[in-house]
Specification:
Shape: elongated
Radius of gyration: 26 Å
Family: Belongs to the flagella basal body rod proteins family.
Main location: other
Distance between the termini: 21 Å
Pfam family, one: Flg_bbr_C
Number of domains: 2
Number of helices: 2
Function: A flexible structure which links the flagellar filament to the drive apparatus in the basal body.
Subcellular location: Bacterial flagellum basal body
Order of helices and strands: HEEEEEEEEEEEEEEEEEEEEH
Length: 260
């Protein structure tokens, strides 16, 4: 009976974590570039009751979390009409850098392409991080009458005389294992050795065999129907495990009453 109580406790803890994951997914259903998370469980060690007989007699001791992964499937694209709103139509991430960090440091990956241009002509994120080109340098488009970003990820500046100049190419990085990235907040990811042993390697969209959509944003890949279904499962699982504890307590109470 004590084993059943501890098993119920482990189940309640796990389903509470599952509800936390689901709640975070739902709260970011409209977050640009957000990637949902999923959690899986596994059983704990089993206690041997007897070694006799043809098959081992074992009783499980509950469950524990096995993995908590980020689903990096692409979200749906939403048209905004803003020329600096970009989306990657394929694999890869934009590379941005904290302007206060040392050169080569403070770099992050993101799928959120809601960029703007500052008064100084820098292409930056909503947090003010510089968007990097394929050469690893911040993209600056000051000194041009107008600019545009084509499907190849090239930033084209138009001069007063009508000449067009390729200012830079949007840098794209594709980690070998995107699930190994660490969430930093603000739809940013930190590179880790688990994601890519070679660190951030930037190339052009053409080199990465992908395209850049201008005037569009990639929305969250959270599916509310799926999340609400998983929420019901987690709720029922939590209730069932709590019932296990309640039933075990009632049985223990009956055992105590035998003395009377």
């Amino acid at each position: 009976m004590l084993r059943s109580m501890y098993s119920g406790i482990s189940g309640m803890k796990n389903f509470q974590v599952k509800l936390d994951v689901i709640g975070n997914n739902i709260s970011n259903v409209n977050t640009v570039g957000f990637k949902k998370s999923t959690i899986t469980f596994q059983d704990l060690l089993s206690q041997n009751m007897s070694n006799g007989g043809a098959n081992p007699m074992q009783v499980g001791l509950g469950s524990t979390g096995a993995s908590l992964n980020v689903n990096h499937n692409a979200g749906s694209a939403m048209s905004t009409g803003v020329g600096t709103d970009l989306t990657i139509m394929g694999d890869g991430f934009f590379v941005v850098q904290d302007p206060e960090a040392q050169p080569g440091e403070g770099q992050y990956l993101t799928r959120a392409g809601n960029f703007t241009v500052t008064a100084a002509g820098d292409l930056v994120t909503a947090q003010g991080y510089n968007v990097l080109g394929s050469n690893g340098q911040a993209i600056n488009i000051a000194g041009y009458d107008s600019y545009a970003i084509n499907r190849l990820g090239e930033v084209i500046g138009k001069q007063a005389n009508g000449n067009e100049v390729t200012v830079a190419s949007i840098g794209i990085s594709t980690p070998e294992n995107p699930s190994g990235l660490r969430k930093f907040g603000g739809s940013l990811y930190q590179m880790t050795a688990m994601a890519s042993p070679n660190g951030i390697n930037m190339q052009t969209a053409v080199q990465k065999n992908t395209e850049i959509g201008s005037g569009m944003l990639e929305m969250s890949n959270v599916d509310l129907t799926e999340e609400f279904t998983e929420m019901i499962i987690a709720q029922r699982g939590f209730q069932a495990n709590s019932r296990t504890i309640t039933t075990s307590d009632e049985i223990l109470q009956e055992v105590v009453n035998l003395k009377r």
